């Protein structure tokens, strides 16, 4: 009696195999899947890079941290549009594109001969599926693509996107997480692995310790110069320096610069400074329950605070800015002459109100910025002839207090080019409700072309600078410590973007 069951089982297995075969063919996937080269050792020369903040997962679809983007973007994953070292847009998986005069239609011409590391062809269908999956699954960064009306792949290497309304930042969005092209049909555990079209594949991942990248031997473009890269994570800058001194790492990216002086004294080690889009700020609570709701008081505090104090307090240093746009982002202009450090003007503006009106102003400062916090507190207290309560907290506590509007002033930072909407977005803790600035932003973001965007975003930036919802201090430097035999390393934006294909050991 068992024979019919055996026959039934065999027939079922054959039918399942035929169904799988048909699915593979219909979706353009190889009949015999190619290895994705993961969890294999490095073959050839390798360089170890010391970093400070380890990603909690490798699932870049759901983890929006800078540390994960730093490790995987342009190394394992690639985007439709790319960015160069100066944050300028350049071709990525799309070799060119065209935008209609009304800013509503985009046509992307994809590169030929591109494959994922498992051998699956990356064509317009793969791009379409990635975009649709990201939008419907609401992956971080894809909320900005909800303005898309239609996505269509007219042939294997042409993708068309139609918008409901113009978005002059669409190309820049597609140069970030929202532009990553995934093999959506691959079956992998994204929490500890990654599969993309980039010059590296994941060789191994040890949470909170290390991530090993191996050269992708099937890479469609110019192959990586090294056999592999080891990203090693350290708890503090001192441990990073010790590893550099012992020779266990050949390159390092310090976080706060606390050990930069010692790093600079190590033999055959150079400290190389670049630029970043991370802007340090003193946030003013313009909520109705804070005295900083008064325009005159925000302006007074801006005059009272010297940006150079903050730059001097940061071992990595930086470039002074006077508005919401950093020097690497589109629309930047020098606004440092708007509300510059001026004790006389600070006292004049503070004196508009009696000292008792200020009550006690609360200033939130992270634990590694206590001396800077004291300078700011003293300057505001002296100018207003009122008390400032300096509260020293973890950065996460500060962000929570800012979100809940339970502060008057707070030292914090704004990180990315696309954070430009921070002061108009309704869910932002920094929302600044002033008609002129909101109108300028609306005109910028609805512009059908880049020229219109730039003209209006500059008006927006200047209006914000003049009304001081924030005291913009400086754009932080990116700092790389590197051995003299290492070349081809990036210098700018290394806190969020670390392309390593050209890294080499002489």
UniProtKB/TrEMBL annotation:
Molecular function via GO: peptide transmembrane transporter activity
Species of origin: Gardnerella vaginalis
InterPro entries in alphabetical order: Peptide/Ni-bd, SBP_5, SBP_5_dom
Name the record gives this protein: ABC transporter, substrate-binding protein, family 5
Limits of the Solute-binding protein family domain: 88-415
GO BP of this protein: peptide transport
Superkingdom of this protein's organism: Bacteria
One protein family per Pfam: SBP_bac_5
One GO location term (cellular component): ATP-binding cassette (ABC) transporter complex
